[in-house]
Amino acid sequence: MSTSPTPPPGCPAHGVGPEGLRRLYGPEAEADPMGLYEKLRAEHGQVAPVLLQGDLPAWLVLGHRENLDVARTPSRFSRDSRRWRDMREGRVGPEHPLTPVAAWQPVCNFVDGADHERLRAAVTDSINRFDRRGIRRYVTRFANQLIDEFAGAGQADLVSRFAEHLPMLVMTQLLGMPESYGPRLVEAARDMIKGTETAVASNEFVMQTLQQLVERKRATPGHDFTTWLLEHRSALTDDEAIQHLRVVLIAAFETTANLIANTVLMVVTDRRFRASLSGGHMTLPDALEQVLWDEPPFTTILGRWATGDTELGGQRIKEGDMLLLGLAAGNVDPEIRPDLTQPVHGNRSHLAFSGGPHECPGQDVGRAIADTGIDTLLARLPDIQLAVAEPDIPYRSSLMSRHMVELPVRFTPKPSMPAQTASSELPAPRRSEPLPEAAGPRPPAAVPAAEAKRRSGTWWRRWFSGH
């Protein structure tokens, strides 16, 4: 009995679903998301009807101006996902693929008004207490440690050996964790974002780690983000503090890892770009902003929900409709960038960090990590080159991001830095503390499907209800 290679109508492998609407999920969408966005723009204009997992309807905002309109007017487009009609009517249950990113949580990016101001103030005020020079010293130290591990080999994958680990190592220090947590949190965070069969267990590991961190900082305060969050006048509960620590940790990991990888790729492949750097016409911060225009760490952000019937970009939006901010599509909107080959030096009007009251509060910390980390890498390995043809670099796309899987490079082998030089700017690392006992010596192993299903029901309810 033979089987046809063509998927049946209605199968997610097709890029077009019911009523001819294009899907933002499945092989076609993941193969070329930017190409899909331009098809949608040509067919519908600056706001396009699309389908999400399970063929749920939504609107993808493609225009730069329209994205800012949605982001800046919470009175029309709320961040409270409890307004989502499909969720209210039971079409988005605990096991739906969008539940982890759409179910309401007691965090600042899911509330508006006074509640948002209280929770966001705790985050922004605590972030603003960081010493930027201190952050850069941490980045330099950890970057040198990571580079030492592969500098003598003359080749490396800069995603797995550098870009993914540097942000997490820095964030563990800023949050007040032992740096020994870093490698394991990278594994758990990567597993969570991929949505693998062990994602539930990895999430439990991250949450348990953060819960113990909060308990430790309640008992023994320190000079770190966790302590400042707990001491803030907003009087966060332990649950609120843990949820915000998770948001900060995971967002910093994913966005900064993507920013580092994409910027290094541009440096080693774009001749005009590299000439500008070496010729002194473009600073590394300028380069980062160019990448934030062309390859924003998140391609879309889910989501906003219409508070009433309204109109946007010529489309009639109904109360309870979901909207996705199309950050990548808005950044290449022909109305503001008719010629994509023209550089945008010094222009920070991109959408990479969203906008309005929910604009990313930690963007300058992410820039500092990426800028200092890449600067250290180029100083240590000045002749770094791509080890494969650029079209052969693998990517993994999802609804909200396009993630570089590997970045193989080669360079002249270099010796490790002397220990006294590498550690001269900062005190020796703190003695490693034990990780939560229940987590075991490594991130959790695979959970059988039936058990994962059982856990996910109670776990999602507990995690996203804040209880």
TrEMBL record:
Family annotation (CDD domains): CYP_unk (cd20623)
Residue ranges of the region described as Disordered: 413-456
Cross-referenced InterPro entries: Cyt_P450_B (IPR002397), Cyt_P450_CS (IPR017972), Cyt_P450_sf (IPR036396)
PANTHER family (UniProt xref): CYTOCHROME P450 YJIB-RELATED, P450, PUTATIVE (EUROFUNG)-RELATED
Protein family (similarity comment): Belongs to the cytochrome P450 family.
Protein name as catalogued: Cytochrome P450
Organism of derivation: Streptomyces ramulosus
